[in-house]
Amino acid sequence: MQGQAEAGHGPVLVQLDHGVLHLTLNRPDKLNSFNQEMHLALRAGFERAHADPAVRAVLLTGAGRGFCAGQDLGDRDPSKQDGPPDLGQTLENFYNPLVRLIRSLPKPVICAVNGVAAGAGANVALACDIVIAAKSARFIQAFSKIGLIPDAGGSWSLPRILGEPRAKALALTAEPLDAETAAQWGLIWKWVGDDHLQEEATALAQRLADGPTQALGMTKLAIQDAASQPLDAQLDLERDLQRRAGRSADYAEGVSAFLQKRKPEFKGQ
Questions:
Q1: Which fold has domain 4-209?
Q2: Average of pLDDT values for 196-220?
């Protein structure tokens, strides 16, 4: 039921509230590090966001004092395994499908980063559309500390957002990046005081959920496509998407509300 928690326990808390699907990583004793159970629960949440028309925006955050510390290395202890793990299979089965679900969702995804976001946790956050971080948040490309490369889309997103020099420096040194610097560099949208993070992120998610979400989803996908398309192809895409948007009920409502000097009531249709 909207406005009430639908899953009060488990590795991901789920709540649908007035069109906003709240997904909260819920392994606070492990800094919300990923294990298989949490992977499957989070994937189910984003699959629901794709399929359920009642979901008009998603707000992803973490319980406790951190957002996500990446992979739970307790599941990767070499002394407890017969041989080296196939981490490529882990990416293929879990992280890559999750990132694809977030990026392809035709609805806004807001990420509220509370505390540390390390390794794959940082890169899952960066896969979201708008990232708001608490002042205490830290983004850490921790992979080099354990002999790995950035994954969960990190090697793709970092150079596109920051450029090659900063992307390489963050990945090679694994130095923490504070929220204020992340915002200055354009890695995230903005930072806010710790006490205001959830309030601001929720208000933003609600504002987007109340908006013309079909057009917002098309805007998201058009901007994502722009990085890999020449201008002519992007102009054609804008033409096609604008044609769809212009035929929507939300466009008619938006124009009517403007002419009548009233607040529009968008339905996401």
A1: 2-enoyl-CoA Hydratase; Chain A, domain 1 (3.90.226)
A2: 96
